[in-house]
Amino acid sequence: MNTEILIIAEHSNGELDPITSDLMAWGAQIGAAKGWKTGVLVAGAGLDPVVAALRSSGVDALHVLDDPALAVYNAGTYVEAIAALLAKAPQRLVLVGHTYLGIEMSGAIAARLDATLWSNCRSIAASDHGYQVTRPISRGAYTSALEVDGAGLTLITLQRGTALPVRPSRPGSPQIISLDMPSGLPVSPIRVTGQTSAELGTDITKADILVAVGRGIGEQEHLREYQDLADILGGSIASSRPLVDMGWLPVDYQVGLSGRTVQPRVYLACGISGSMQHLAGMRSSKVIIAINEDPNAPIFEVAHYGIVGDINAILPELTQAAKLGANAR
Ligand SMILES: Cc1cc2nc3c(=O)[nH]c(=O)nc-3n(C[C@H](O)[C@H](O)[C@H](O)COP(=O)(O)OP(=O)(O)OC[C@H]3O[C@@H](n4cnc5c(N)ncnc54)[C@H](O)[C@@H]3O)c2cc1C
C-alpha cells in the first residue's frame, strides 16, 4: 500500500457509507498540503459495486481486500487483517470514521501497531510537525484544538457530519490494487452467529423539513402537537435518543450517532440540548433552528437561528404561523 494517507472505507450491502466521502475530502486536503498520496482501503467480500462507486473518487489508489472470510463483519478478523496489511506497508496517517465500526477497529489496530490514536475528531489540518485536530471536550460544550506529532503512524477517527465546506476536486482514476488476505492470522475469538437489520418504516433522511423533539418537550402527550406542526410544514417528526429509549417514538425517528444521519433543508430542534451524539447526526442540515430555554445549550453553537424560551409556550404560535403560511400558499 504505497500511499502515505489511508482511508478505511465503510460500506454495507454494496453501498458506500457517506462518511467515506468525508474522510476522502479530509485526506485530499492533508495530501495536498503535505505532498502525500491518498489511498482507500476497501475490505469485505463481493466488493465490485463499492469499487465501482470509488472509481471516480480522485484518490491515488484503491486497495481492495476482497475475501469470503470478510463477508460478515467480525471485529477480530477485520482488525487482524487490516493491522497485518498496515504492518507490511507503513502509512503515515490512517483516517477512520468515528462510527460504531470505526471506534471498535481503530483502538485495536492502533494497539497492534503501537500507533498514536486520536479519536472523535471534528477536523484535521496539516501542520509543520504533524496535524492539528479539533475534538469536543466537556460533553461537547467546548472544542479543543490540539497539535498532534506526526512522527509515527497516526490514526484519526472523524465524526460524521464533519464534511469540509468545500470539497477538493481531484479528477482522475485511482490505481486499483488487489490485496490478498494476510496469512497466519490468529483465529478471531468472536463468533458471529447472526445478523439483523433494522426494518425502518419511516425514512426521516428523505424529509425536507424535520421537526425534531427532545426531552425538553416534557410529556409524551405533547408529541401530537409537534406531529401537527410537521404535517402543516410538509415535513416529518424526528427525535433525540431519550424519547426513543423511553418508548415515545420508534427508533426510525432517532437522529444521531446511534440513529440516523439527516441533512434536511430545515432542522427545527425543539427542547434538544445538542449532545455531541445528537449533533453527529444533524450537524450538516442546511438551516438549523433551535428552541431551548437554556441560552447555554450546546445546540445553539450549531444553530443558524435560535429562540431562548419555553417550547410549550412557543409551539402554539409557531403552529399558528405555519397554518397561516400554508393557507397563503
Ligand atoms: C454511545 C451513545 C450513543 C448515543 N447516541 C445518541 C443518538 O444517536 N442520538 C441522540 O440524540 N442521543 C444519543 N445519545 C445520548 C446523548 O448523549 C444525550 O443524552 C441525548 O442526545 C440528550 O437528548 P436531549 O437533548 O433530548 O435531552 P437533554 O440532554 O436532557 O436536553 C433537554 C433540553 O431541553 C431543554 N428544555 C427543557 N425544558 C424545556 C422547555 N420547556 N422549553 C425549551 N427547552 C427545554 C433543556 O434546556 C435541555 O437543553 C447517545 C449517547 C451515547 C453514550
Rg over CA atoms: 22 Å
Q: Within the largest sheet, what's the order of strands?
A: 7-11-6-1-4-5-12
Supply the helix-strand structural class.
alpha/beta
Taking the alpha carbons of the first and last residues, their distance comes to 58 Å
Low-confidence stretches: none
Could you state the order of secondary-structure elements as H and E? EEEHEHEHEHEEEEEEEHEHEHEHEH
Number of helix segments? 9
User: Bound small molecules, which ones?
Assistant: flavin-adenine dinucleotide
Global mean pLDDT: 91
List the helices and strands and how they pair.
Layout: E1 5-8, E2 11-12, E3 15-16, H1 18-34, E4 38-44, H2 48-54, E5 61-66, H3 75-88, E6 93-97, H4 100-113, E7 116-121, E8 123-127, E9 130-137, E10 142-149, E11 154-158, E12 175-178, E13 209-213, H5 223-233, E14 236-239, H6 241-245, E15 266-270, H7 276-282, E16 287-292, H8 299-302, E17 305-308, H9 311-328
Parallel strand pairs: 1-4, 1-6, 4-5, 5-12, 6-11, 7-11, 13-14, 13-15, 15-16, 16-17
Antiparallel strand pairs: 2-3, 8-9, 9-10
Bound molecules: flavin-adenine dinucleotide.
